[in-house]
Amino acid sequence: EVIGNAARKPPAIFFSESSLPFDGFVSEKSTRELTHQATLPYEGYARLGYGVVNELDVKASYNFNITPRDNVNAYIAVDGYKRWLDGEIGDWKSRMYNTTIGMNYSHRFDYLKIDADAGVDNMVFNYQDAGFNAGHTDKQNSTGARVGVRGESMLSGPFAYSFRAGYTYAGRKYSYDMEKGINENRILAGGSVLYKIENAELNEVGMDLELNTFLYNGVLRKSVNKYRDYLSFDIDPYLNFDISDWQLRLGTSMKIVTANGATFSIAPDVRLRKDFSDKIQFFAYATGGREDNNFTRIQSITPYWGFDEECGKQLKPTYKVVD
Hints:
This protein is mainly beta. It has three helices and 16 strands.
């Protein structure tokens, strides 16, 4: 059911998908469809779904156009399931519920757009270990919180810039029978600069910068694996060309890591594209670089990860020379 006033400006409805760990959930496909609602003249959206095997799907969002320059969007998403699954020594009751609650505020100045976002994520689920404790079902809890601000220039000239800053918390409890919680704190600061050149084959010169600081709690730092706090600094300069309808990007991805495999790395960022028609497009690329294996990234791959004082080693960043 949709609600609102058809005479007002349609909202840009957005739901975070960070609480959706796998494809195949009831809400997964339709949630992504919510990101292009420009033709619907409604201020809010609400949906309640229930699957035949105890699958829950709840989505709600409301858009507040406070002034022509100020907008607030609040959203909540809950999904999950509870069902019996086959186990090593018989059936066991599996459950997983994901919750995301957040709010976004946007203000438009004459030459600058500012967005501020805050939200929390929570995932509760259980897991039956197929190894040493095949008959044991534990409980696990992943929590997350985020707050951030980003700005984008609205200048009409050739020069443009953007900036961003934020804080992210990611924590786990009860993983592999450990009652002590573990957590990672991430502080981010970054931005980009861009200069456009008219009537030239080299039409754009730019650079992206991002600094991440990763901080770990005492349980991790004092474990036998001795997690270390570290900085990760990304520097990505590039040139964009438009040569006889061929679009070419020449750039590099550089990264400096101060600990946890401290290193300096460099990888290409080269992309080539040409549109022959509305239905035929050619593209080729050679990219690479180093990616931090922080808690948020691991959680996006699988929620069934944990920490054990004997084997929970701190993962070094993944490095791809070229892809």
